[in-house]
Please model this.
Amino acid sequence: MRSSKWAVAAGIGLLIFLFMQVLPAIAPAMKGESAAISRGEAKRIGLAYASAHWGMDLGEGSDATITHVGDDRMAAYMTKHKLTDEYDRDWDARYPTDVYAVDIHAADGSVDRVSVHMESGEVVGWARVGDALTDADKAAASDADARTAEAIAWLKTQPDYDASAWEPTGSLTQGGSVILQSRKSGLSDAHVQLLVKPDKVLTYRYALPQAFADELAQQRKIADKLSMTGFLLPQIVMFVLAVIYAATCRGWTSFKRGLFLSAAFFVMYAGFMFNLRPGLRASSVDMNAIASESNVSALLVTNVVILFIQALLTYFAAVGGDGLWRSMGRSLWPRWQDADYGSQVKTAMKQGYMLAVILLAAQTIVLTALGLLLGSYYGSDPSQSAYNMYAPWLLPLLAWCAGISEEIQTRFFGIGLVRKWLGAFVRSKRAGTHDASSPGTAVSKVLTSIAVLPATAVWAFGHVGYAVFPWQTRFIELMIIGALFAWFMLRFGLLTVIFAHVVLDSTLMAVQMLSDGLSSDNLAGFVSVLLPAAVAMGIAWLHERRRGGPGPASDFSR
Model:
């Protein structure tokens, strides 16, 4: 296929992606409608509120943690029932589904929370969480009516609330707060509830219809099971097989293969996990709960250990995959020793950019179609948001981690492994017959196409836990996108799909950063899209210096 045709396809893909995804996502930010305050500004607001309203004088030993927390179930409910515009108009200013939770850890060990609106900076809720239940609280908790009357009387003294706008539910939270429900209609069958405990708690939550809550819980249960059986267990098996084939195919490859990439994956991802510590905090609690810092530290350590194991899998998959493909007569990954290695890297980068925009367009079309066919809807995941990063501009590191690990593990090794098995199976069936030769070209193509499916399914199952419902949405989407990635790898090689994957994810992350409304991240978003080109040019330059000059250029049409 001539490169001009790929360029045309990439141009069309870029237009589809820009008009269907980018412009709708960043339009509010471009108009200044969704500008977000920084984590530092949220901390300042929270501490000032505590000082002014509670007389807190934070001395030595005091600290404050800032976490973006959100009601992911309500976000899913709004997208499913198309309530976002109504919510933005009538509810977001006072009862946002996402807030900065400023948790103030005083020197005496007590904890207080101030919930800050992420755009306006207004305080929308607070809780003296560190105050333990007294014996009087426990005794009064048995009398919901008395607690409710007391809460309503106290609410009337609060200048920003109209007590008549709330009706009692007759219920208390486990912490003893009275639950009041808004009399205002809207948001379909969802309701805003106020949690009131005089002088201790004044915050809110969204109450969803039980049928929807059950549906969402069931979807997540299915996704968790599929992730376990369709991704985690195959990953364990793949690790063992990668070690075995790295050893058995050592005559076709080198144990130096993948050392740099797997080490880079671990260093980048481990560093990113420390950057995402507030996200780990958000993943362990709901919107009105405070995480244990010791639990967050344990979760961080656990994740780093898992990442180390993933890095080992990436390394052995790189060695084993290279050996498998070369033993089958194919070279999908150039070596540093090749005279034209630098030229091949630059070509792979150029191919990667073109293929990335084709993939972005394909993803946009597939998700749009699935939205119509399956009624897909989306939740939110504060644990992965840029607002929960100390340095949000490091978000694109994930693109490199995913591009390196997933392409080497799933595509390069996974497809090569199954293709090797299928070839051996066909040869065993032909053994002893009049035709004991290797499979012909047509049969070989069929076997390779079949080999793509298991590896692609494992990759797709690894992503069904995302906040996209029903779970089939992401599975179908990624089976299609994964098949395209596989085709591109088989046609253009491993480096091309790594670059394509990195560019694709970097572009999506750049759009997220532009739409998040953090002005400090706008430049970082653009840089992240250009970084793969800079890295490729740097590698090519370094190789040419070491080799004494550029090698022959590779052909995009091969």
